[in-house]
Amino acid sequence: MHVNIGIYVTLILLLVCIVQTSSKKYEPNWESIDSRPLPGWFDDSKVGILIHWGVFSVPSILSEWFWYQWKTKTPVLVDFMKENYRPDFTYPDFAPQLTAEFFNAEEWANLLKLSGAKYVVLVAKHHEGYTMWPSNYSWNWNSMDVGPKRDIVGEVADAIRKNTDMHFGLYHSLFEWFNPIFEQDRANGFKTQDFVSMKTMPELYEIVNKYKPEIIWSDGSHAAKDDYWNATNFLAWLYNDSPVKDYVVTNDRWGVNDNCIHGGFVNCGDRFNPKVLHKRKWENVMTLDRYSAGYRRNAKLADYFSVHELLTEVAQTVSCGGNILINVGITKEGTITPVFQNILLKLGGWLEVNGEAIYGSRPWLYQSDNVTTDVWYTSNMVEQDVFVYAILLSWPRNNNTVSLGSTIMTTSTTVVSMLGYKGNFSWRPNAYGGIDVIIPPIPFNLMPSVDAWVLKISGLKNVYKRN
């Protein structure tokens, strides 16, 4: 029998390559850590929900930074505490009032599923230091010892995984405002790392091993550089040896010197929305309450984003290659208030019709139209065909005609339709080098949306084949 030695050699080399790839070890430095490919599920997901809940939900005024703002003499909070609480009242005295009597993790999960979000990030610990799980490193300042007397992180994780197909992640603050150990490290010019070794790192290892989050959303990095936090050592373990090493993603908040530079994806600050392509995979973390991530009892309706404003953020963000992380604040009783529910459900209704233009999409050759404002593009592959989607954020006023600019290069097979509406639309070349799309009269009960509409375009010259 003739043996083809070349085939065997090729197979052996291929197996060696596979083994080396699967066993690649990331070194505790940014060059190595940043070389890790971003797990594909994150880029495909596009829409996530961030949940802020903590002791700050009890006073629920001004923002989730209540403790810091009060202690630094913000006048409105000094007056609020003087008028409503005894003189010797302390911030930890709020913790027993975090009652969570109406908290139902499965109700949360069902609502979040209906929002159309593909991942959820829960605040496990904010800068106040209170942990929403029974941490071994936060004695008497956690949700089991004081307040709800429940493992909030565990309940939410279980409900999300049981009732939805969403990915589950955890937000964790590296530092704590008034922790005396951290304050001593700061006073030492961060030449000591007692807080990191006693609090930050033990907590991070604890939540990863116990809850296996698919996202570690770090915050509080502005307090010190990443070498103080031992960030690269933790990330090397996370990517090499942790129980989530193959699919976990991380953001860029691992040190004051890392923002918008390092990490699996970048936030570049809250509410980051550049409206242009960014060189890194990025995320726009925004709050539905314009002024706070935590729930505010005294918020006015005008303080909340409208559905149209939210969809504008979604369109701009996804068009430019980002994900959007939409924050909601929780009451001390553990409820998501009707105003948040309404926005999330309307977002979910829109995504149910138009998700083809969002989930799994990629930026097109152009992000916004060069003739008509409020038009943002995405592209996606359906089976073997590449489609371009024009997201209209306002209804055309000129005889129901949408003028798209020279970005649209047609062929004899170009077809235009609208997601959620049966039938194709007619079009004609326009003076701008693009096309005018004529939208026929659509009965109100057949209108696919009232806030934003998506044109689906096939058969263009200027599309590229996705890998």
Automatic annotation (TrEMBL):
Does the keyword section mention Glycoprotein?
A: yes
What keywords is this UniProt entry annotated with? Glycoprotein, Glycosidase, Hydrolase, Signal
User: What are the annotated GO cellular component locations?
Assistant: lysosome
For the biological process aspect of GO, one term held by this record is:
glycoside catabolic process
Gene3D superfamilies registered for this protein in UniProt: Glycosidases, Golgi alpha-mannosidase II
One short Pfam family name for this protein? Answer: Fucosidase_C
The residues the entry assigns to the signal sequence are 1-23
Provide the Glycoside hydrolase family 29 N-terminal domain boundaries. 19-356
Originating organism: Mytilus galloprovincialis
This protein's name: alpha-L-fucosidase
GO terms for MF: alpha-L-fucosidase activity
Q: What residue stretches are annotated with the Alpha-L-fucosidase C-terminal domain?
A: 367-457
Known function: Alpha-L-fucosidase is responsible for hydrolyzing the alpha-1,6-linked fucose joined to the reducing-end N-acetylglucosamine of the carbohydrate moieties of glycoproteins.
